[in-house]
Fold this protein.
Amino acid sequence: MNRFIGRTALVTGAASGIGREVAISFAREGATVVGADTDSDGLCGLCEQIGNRVWARVLDVSSESDWISAIRETETRHGRLDVLVNCAGAEAADGLQDPEHLLLEGWRRVQSVNVEGVALGCKHAIGLMSRNRSGAIINIASVAACVSTPTLAAYGASKAAVIHLTRSVAAHCARAGYGIRCNSVVPGVVVTPMIERYWSRLEREQHLSAAEARQRFLSRIPLGGFQEATDIAAAVLFLASADARQITGVALPVDGGFLLHDR
Ligand code: NAD
């Protein structure tokens, strides 16, 4: 229960959903948490929940200057960075987008948060972590990276890029002898504001009832039931812990068997 005493963990997307649960879990296990997000109200809620174990930092992951100052401030305040969890994510805001009808602006927004945000986080965390010759980076991908996503083309492509980027970061850091491991976690379906927005769009644009939209996903999960944010957090903390010290470059599904389906 105290795997991260004396450690500092920076979690993006910490204001909501999975990122919030990851931040709470690290704090519960003794870490000092830098909770980063664009949503300052959500960050205030996180601070109320875990108090002085968290330092809330407004950060737009797609901005390199934001990353430079957040990492610099992390070093000044805490002296070190042991764990980075790139959890902030976005889906296209302008409705379901198939490859034929996608809007370039929406495509770019998704790639800038989900891919550039992760790349920038890794880039700037490596510099600080490598000074201690240790560190763990966990990037949050999605099962959407591994199956076709005809109504979420930009999102699926962005998450496939996250899995590939994770392997490149892992190989680079290993070759350089930095002692930094990099892995991705591949969640299935977790009921959070993001998935609720997606279901609402399915209901509206494909004329499904709320129950039908949920059942479409539920029917693809062999173990039955959606995943909880705590399931994803448990996998993240494992990959960040000493128990995973020989694990780097993997994509770990936490999906109730979603990816067992041959499609
Ligand atoms: P969520 O909407 O509850 O949380 C996402 C958070 O990211 C929000 O707090 C939002 O403010 C923040 N964010 C968005 N853009 C940002 C930016 N530019 N800079 C900083 N913060 C930003 O969603 P969630 O379901 O908790 O998603 C967390 C991660 O898990 C995402 O990467 C998502 O793609 C991934 N994921 C979710 C599911 C699921 O079923 N919920 C499945 C697979 C993968």
